[in-house]
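Hi L.,

You mentioned the student needs an example of a multi-chain input paired with its predicted structure. This one should do, with 344 residues in total across all chains.
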Amino acid sequence: MRVFLFTLLIAATALFAADSVDRSAGQPNAPVTLQVFSDFQCPHCARLHFGALKEALTDCVASGKVRIVYRDFPLQQHPFARKAAQYADAAARIGRYERVCDTLFRTQEEWGRTGDVEGAMAKDLTPAEIARVRKILSDPKSLAEIDREIDADMSLGAKIPLAETPTMILSGGGKTYPIKGDVRYDLLKQLINTLPVK
Amino acid sequence: MRRVVAIVGRLALAVVFLWAAYTKLRDPWMVFAMEIDAMHIVPGAAVEFVARTMPWFELVLGVLLVIGIQMRSVATAATALLAFFFCVLLFLYFKGFQGDCGCFGPGEQLGPKTLARDGTLVALSLWVTWDAFRRSKYVPVSDRPV
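Structure written out for the whole complex:
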């Protein structure tokens, strides 16, 4: 009975993890949170993604000190940024958010010209995964949910107020710092280390 | 009357420098360093030095402007610094930079208002400097007749 319950729990957790919208990296109870507002068509966001954020993932996120929360902030001047965010959020529902973010930022010039976001994603996802993403986006209910999430991120950004991307909000130990631009990781790490965490 | 205007102008500049220093020194130096770094105009190795020293330089200038001593040197330094900031911001604005100006801590995006304000400050500082040099003999503010 115990084994059965344990197996059921593991299965339920796996099912939940697969279906839940996870657009974060790191432990949920990490003492420091770094919210990253970005736009998939923004070149500075791509530089931040492959620069400081990648370094953070292998360093302070891996050590459990920092949790990165990704937030969408598609700018009006980028016609396909919202579409890319929709695809990325759909990919998050199948547990492929990180990979799709990498793809979209790496190929932003390409799909930024044509608007073929799905074509860009197809390079790094399997046909089965693409089919699942397509299914999510073709379901009006799921699409509406994704749009609500994007709008919620944008409302949150507007309250800060946020006018440019990328913008990060670093918080921990009762302190909060807004950080703008594609910053260097060594500076970001030093700032993280000043935060009074338990 | 002119003397009163000169004192008011000098104190206004002092408040600006003291406020600029305070807004940078209340946060860890890395916050200002990242603002400078995002502008991509200061070499990477110099970013930390500038971020650590600039707020203290602004503080010293502000204090000296309040006291009113060595006004020729102090006003010249203030004008040079403000003119330098103005040129940098003008360059960044026309380059399409949309980040923080870094003037008074984080949160102020570079725009026409920033340029208008900084241009006004340069003009005010020039006038204060000109007034300091206009006097043939330097007299400390405390000794000047009102």
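You could point out the following to them. Chain B has one domain: 2-134. The mean pLDDT of chain B is 88.

Best wishes,
N.
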